[in-house]
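Exercise 7b. Backbone tokens:
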């Protein structure tokens, strides 16, 4: 009786193994029907989309649709996408059924810069400079004015004192949902001090920030003015708001 049970167990194991092998062979002979690209985080700025990724694969003569699963090269796809300047990490390239999944972690740009020479580039939340490619459609905080630094791969905000100040200000605004919805532009003045001015989305006033000293307090004061003052008085009453004085705002009436 024990021998019979042992034989049955062995037969069952062999059957399962055969089914797994057959399923694996059948899977490899299947063809890729769809490609799904997922971005992390899901609310990433619109710097790269699924059509952009698919177009990039096509440009490099990498076809997936209607190709046998066993002929698709996940490692090749991963290596290609990892080189893209907007991709922080390729989390995975894998099949689920006949769907090829590509999971990407994107870099998070916070600033769109225009140099004095008219060239454009981006800066991400870690301070790295990124090229401004045609696929980039995200609405970002803009920085311009006396900005002489040009884009070069691998550079960070630390390569230039003005860039570093812009990074510090943009990071602080990006962390504050209220101010992020209010401020549209940073302007670097051309005087020797290279101070920073801010322009709002609503209203037509210039906000004099100065440098980044006591920045959090300056922005907190500005937020209070917007919530408790300007929103009631009107956005166009003042032509200038000066934050360069500690714990107060000097307003210039239009």
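Sequence design result:
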């Amino acid at each position: 009786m024990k021998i019979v049970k042992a034989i049955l167990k062995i037969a069952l194991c062999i059957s399962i193994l055969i089914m797994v092998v057959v399923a694996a062979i059948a899977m490899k002979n299947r063809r890729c029907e769809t490609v799904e690209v997922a971005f992390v985080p899901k609310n990433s700025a619109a710097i790269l989309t699924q059509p952009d990724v698919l177009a990039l694969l096509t440009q490099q003569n990498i076809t997936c649709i209607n190709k046998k699963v066993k002929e698709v090269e996940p490692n090749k796809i991963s290596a290609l996408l990892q080189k893209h300047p907007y991709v922080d990490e390729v989390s995975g390239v894998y099949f689920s059924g006949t769907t090829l999944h590509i999971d990407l972690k994107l870099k998070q740009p916070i600033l769109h810069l225009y140099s004095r020479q008219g060239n454009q580039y981006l800066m991400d939340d870690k301070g790295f400079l990124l090229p401004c490619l045609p696929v980039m459609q995200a609405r970002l905080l803009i920085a311009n004015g006396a900005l002489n630094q040009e884009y070069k791969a691998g550079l960070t905000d630390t390569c230039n004192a003005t860039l570093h100040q812009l990074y510090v200000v943009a990071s602080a605004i990006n962390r504050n949902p209220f101010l992020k919805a209010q401020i549209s532009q940073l302007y670097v003045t051309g005087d020797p001090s290279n101070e920073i001015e801010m322009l709002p989305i609503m209203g037509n006033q210039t906000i004099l920030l100065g440098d980044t000293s006591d920045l959090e307090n300056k922005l907190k004061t500005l937020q209070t003015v917007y919530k408790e003052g300007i929103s009631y008085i009107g956005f166009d009453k003042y032509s200038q708001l000066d934050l360069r004085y500690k714990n107060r705002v000097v307003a210039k009436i239009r």
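Instructor comment: The first strand starts at residue 34 and ends at 40. The domain at 34-106 is CATH 3.10.20 (Ubiquitin-like (UB roll)).
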